[in-house]
Amino acid sequence: MKQIVLVSNCQTLGLAHCLIALGRVQVLKYNMAEFHADPKTVLQKARSAEALVADPDSLRSCLRAAREQQNTVLLPAIYFDGYHPDITYLNDASGTRIKGPLGDYHSVIAYTGHRLGLSLQDTLRLFERRTYERLGWLSSWDSNREAFLEKYSAHGFDLRRSFVNWGRTAAFMHSVNHPAIRCLADLAEAVLDRLGLPVNRSSALPHDNLLSGPVFPVYPELAEAVGVCGTNLYKQFGGYNSMSREEFVGASWELYEANPGSKVWPAFEQAFEQTLKRVREML
Fold first, then answer.
1. Parallel, antiparallel, or unpaired for β 3-8 and 51-54?
2. What is the mean pLDDT of the chain?
3. pTM above 0.85?
4. Which of 29, 202, 220, 256 lies at a 20 to 30 A Cα distance from 272?
5. Which residues lie across from 263 on neighbouring strands?
């Protein structure tokens, strides 16, 4: 049986299961923390495998060493914010990640309202079509799609047909970095094709393990713009309980009050500043 060494992020388990189901291969899987705990050993194992399939961001400082291996396939992890432009990440004053009612996922609108000194009720009123239009969220789908496809094209993967199929019936992301299992199945198939390995297509996909995590809503106004069903419910981690918007923002508010020195992650600073500016103009 062919062996593949896989290094990725939170998508590792689902992608590994898809490779096994579709390719009948053995997969040695490592998340980022496991890889960086002993990269030398992982790369050594990969040399004797059919391929090292790795997310370039997960490899970080070891990217060059991995590239030098002829059997390396660089496969970016799926990240797409076309459904969830409201997601942001926060650190406290010490630089430690702040976890809220949906784990790492915070609402940039809620955080902006708090930073501007708005009341909780006034902040909740910002969650409506006029705000989304001013922020450009209702017209950004095409640019988000092209950026996503270009990222994969740069690594030799054409996902245009897959992308169209993913969104035909429902949103294909649970959050910005948690794709539905059907997306990971298509990535697995693309990898197997690249390696020249047979693909055993089946409608029986592996369990979508990322559904056990938090699910950020696709707001109805945004969902209407891209042709899927929307909701204002926020699914929590580890179960099927959901929070209303009022509950989610209220719980987030308590965190912000307890962390007055909080900041958005550097990667989200530009989006936050733009939101801050647009919301201030609306007041």
1. parallel
2. 95
3. yes
4. 220
5. 91
